[in-house]
Design brief:
By secondary structure, the chain is an alpha/beta fold. It folds into three domains: 181 residues, Rossmann fold (3-Layer(aba) Sandwich), CATH 3.40.50.620; 56 residues, SH3 type barrels (Roll); 84 residues, Elongation Factor Tu (Ef-tu), domain 3, CATH 2.40.30.10. The chain is 25% helix and 32% strand. It is built from seven helices and 18 strands. The strands form four sheets. A six-stranded antiparallel sheet has the order 14-17-18-13-16-15, with no helix packed on it. Strands 3-2-1-4-7 form a five-stranded parallel sheet, sandwiched between helices. A five-stranded mixed sheet has the order 10-9-8-12-11, with no helix packed on it. Helix 1 packs across helix 6 and helix 3 packs antiparallel against helix 4. The radius of gyration is 21 Å and the shape is globular. The chain starts with a strand and ends with a strand.
Length: 339
């Protein structure tokens, strides 16, 4: 009988993952990663595991999570970038630790509650979009190496969320949180104000003239118009200048970019990027993404230069740019710059 370690929070998705795999004949071990100081979340997972009558363990990874994810999150905003903590957590915390636990225990697989599928083509493994377009989480898994993918089971990728809720959503099963886990119920703005020096500064227009004030550059992202203290209407943030604590604003139309530079990046098979117009990109998990195809302009050891047939709107440095061949993830990288 094959053995699998399931990343387990006690919520509906990880609960359903464990039950589906047990029903399929796997020996299931539950593992909860303690990433925050909220002991209530750990207690929830423990109680749920007891209800399921499945073996459960926890692993305290708070210090590692603080270093790899929280520090990255704060420093990204300090640099005027827009971070993606979920993508970083998956690549640096969740999947590596599940994989290590699998190896240490001599198990066969790891499993997560992500709504994605994993397919093998030849000798390579790819993340594939889940069947439920409203729950697809492939955007956040572009940076996973082959050794994790070839060892992973993601049963929820073959289900719609509505079916999971119907089959496994008991009244006492908590829903999975959609917010950033370490914010602990406060807003991102409040969190940054607690962890960064946030000082008011100048807002300038496209010609460099001062036209207003802002509350602190780290509280803004590219494309934002809320919170800009200026008489100019229709202005959005087009550039963040951390060195001078300054925001540049302009009309939204100026945020259309065809050229994207990614650094660093990970591509499963570089050959798949060679045919012109053979792939598409997403710059956000949910929301408006570029239509049309993309093509590779240049590839170096650490940078990808992409050209988009249709422009990306309001892309921000630091965001992941994920490359797709239809529903298959080819890879991705962090947006360094654009023009």
């Amino acid at each position: 009988m094959k053995k699998v370690i399931v990343g387990f929070s006690g919520g509906i998705d990880s609960t359903a993952t464990a039950l589906i795999l047990r029903e399929a004949g796997y020996t299931v071990q539950l593992l909860t990663l303690q990433i925050t100081d909220d002991i209530g979340l750990l207690d929830r997972a423990c109680r749920r595991a007891e209800q399921l009558d499945l073996p459960w363990e926890s692993l305290d990874v708070r210090e590692l999570f603080r270093h790899e994810v929280i520090d990255y999150f704060i420093e990204s905003y300090r640099r005027g970038e827009t971070p993606s903590p979920c993508a970083v957590c998956n690549a640096r915390i969740k999947w590596p630790l599940l994989y290590d636990a699998m190896r240490q225990k001599g198990y066969d697989y790891i499993a997560t509650g992500h709504y994605v599928r994993i397919e093998s083509v030849g000798e390579r493994y790819y993340v594939q979009q889940g069947v439920d377009p409203n729950k697809d989480q492939s955007y956040y898994l572009w940076d996973l190496p082959q050794k994790y993918l070839q060892s992973a089971l993601t049963p929820l990728g073959s289900f719609c969320k509505s079916e999971i809720l119907r089959r496994y959503g008991q009244s006492d099963t908590p829903r999975e949180s959609m917010s950033i886990c370490f914010l602990s119920g406060i807003s991102c703005t409040e969190y940054l104000q607690r962890h960064l020096p946030v000082n008011p500064g100048e807002i300038i227009d496209e010609t460099g003239h001062v036209i207003g004030r802002h509350a602190g550059y780290a509280l803004y992202t590219i494309g934002q118009k809320k919170g800009l203290q200026t008489d100019r209407e229709g202005m959005v943030v087009t550039e963040i200048d951390p060195l001078h604590n300054r925001l540049r604003v302009g009309p939204f139309q100026t945020l259309q970019h065809h050229h994207l530079l990614l650094h660093p990046y990970r591509i499963t098979d570089p050959v798949l990027l060679q045919p012109p117009g053979s792939f598409s990109v997403r710059i956000r998990g949910i929301g408006q993404n570029p239509g049309g195809k993309a093509r590779l302009i240049e590839q170096t050891a650490d940078t990808l230069h992409l050209y988009l047939e249709e422009p990306a709107l309001a892309a921000s440095p630091g965001q992941p740019v994920v490359l797709y061949d239809q529903d298959r993830v080819l890879g991705g990288g962090f947006l360094k710059s654009y023009f």
